[in-house]
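Objective 1.3, modelling of assemblies. Example input:
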Amino acid sequence: MASDSPVFIGVDLGATKIVAAALAMDPGKEGVGEVLSQVKGKTPRTAKAKDIVAAIAEAAKSALASAGKPCAGLGIAIPGPLDRAKGLVRYTPNLGLENYPLAQELSAALGMPVVLENDVQAGVLGELVGGALRGCRNAVGVFIGTGIGGGIVINGELYRGSTGSAGEVGHMILMEGGPVCGCGNYGCLEALASRTAMAKDALALAASGKAPAMLDAAGTDFRKYRSSAFEEALEGGDEAVGGVVDRAGFWLGVGLANIVNLLNPEAVVVGGGVTARFGKRLLKAARASMEDRLMTGLAATVRIVQSELGDLAVPTGAAIAARRDLEARRPAGAKEKSAR
Amino acid sequence: MASDSPVFIGVDLGATKIVAAALAMDPGKEGVGEVLSQVKGKTPRTAKAKDIVAAIAEAAKSALASAGKPCAGLGIAIPGPLDRAKGLVRYTPNLGLENYPLAQELSAALGMPVVLENDVQAGVLGELVGGALRGCRNAVGVFIGTGIGGGIVINGELYRGSTGSAGEVGHMILMEGGPVCGCGNYGCLEALASRTAMAKDALALAASGKAPAMLDAAGTDFRKYRSSAFEEALEGGDEAVGGVVDRAGFWLGVGLANIVNLLNPEAVVVGGGVTARFGKRLLKAARASMEDRLMTGLAATVRIVQSELGDLAVPTGAAIAARRDLEARRPAGAKEKSAR
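Predicted structure (tokens):
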């Protein structure tokens, strides 16, 4: 890659952490580019917008300083709905931002153009351009964490739906009347296969003495039932926790069957912290229950794959979104400009 | 419409009946055109391909004779998977056609070009071009009969998926472990909201004396539990049968919630014989359960509407598919040709 490739910053604004990456993107070709630097910071717990802006700006500056190059623009991925055209964050369940002009504020703080993207859409875009979905025309991304989010690729492009909210795979009801979901419904995929769903079962098993390694790793505090604790419990030989993972995989497979029967994609990428830690076991169970439920002949047409970009999927997709958006704004033939 | 508009024949090949319509389509503009004639025939019960070809040819000739005009081509809608490019019927669960070159055989019998289309896709195309989905960019069609089929519109075009099988809304699992479905799975939308699903419940109620009007209309013969019998039972005051319809509507609404949360369409059209007979009651129940389950704000973005073309949706879509296909084959600038 040419050393004068424009640099874009991609930021993943999470409820607990901020990940910023600087990527050098060859102007002549599509792709994720070269990761020049990656910085992690904490999301301030104050719920004050200006503290969040300051923390993002600090992470971005730090990623840029490590990269040592001027920057063409920044893309930031938001955990919630937004107005892309206006650069407005609509609301964020866990961050306290509401109808907030984040693009404008951050652009003023950093002196560079800023583009907003939804975090799950950014993750799918990252995998599409430079990860597990590279080259796909029709595909789906499913990201498993506290909740389950998703994104749809149709004809090689992110499909956003008629009002920008397409891709809610997590709230597909698989068992009407089943366990309660964060959305208020019952039996959604998210209520059956998210890390939160697994944590509920694993905690009950640990508390009743059936998962001693889990009890060692996380005690009985629900908040400690993170992916790393599950990994420890599995390594520690908790068969009951293995069963919880298999059960989540079973339900993930039911959800995948619905998605594949409906959309006939060539691939589904499964990402998020859970898959990075014990994705192999989860996906094995998911593939089995999916294949049991697919229409005749469909199983051979679809690949179920793990995320290739992992933690970098979202910041990479955010940087790509920024690059695309800024290139679309520039008059044809105009030269790429860089601002420090 | 100009009296010299080219005429296309659209045929709906069903398991029990064949519907053929002749449509005059103004060459200058997209649209369903003018219905010149409509003919119904019986599908032969012999399961011999040549008898089926003869019956289709007879219906098409009869429709053409009534129309009194030369014909540019014929589109035929098939209840099963097909190879459009080769004009091959892959298989038809209820007709006995398997890997059969229907386009070629029918073209030889009629002396005109023949194009195949899937029946549900044809129905969605008909509603999109000239029915309830006119003008939609992103929409879904759900057709309720013995089973439940569907089709997806993305960016104003039928979305077929990576291997041509997209749109299987009927086999979306809503209640894993629920009632058995014709596909072999349990708890699919089709097993909960098709006419077959309603018939199972209504028959049990009639047999146990709780639905006297239904018993009068259809006895205890499962095959007689058709849409017309349901209509008679509802008119006859069978509250229990009304409950069966409301229950099917409830499940239809759960399925619609999944579809709308996933695809964020601007409209969903619901068609098929069931909706023609008692669609108002069914859709009222469906809208209520859907709205209970949609993500915040989505209910206001989507219209749930009944088919406008009814019985003519499928033949109309087949004729449109024929017209499009034949226009795409013709070199640009060549004149429209007609053959008798």
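The CA atoms of residues 88 and 149 of chain A lie 20 Å apart.
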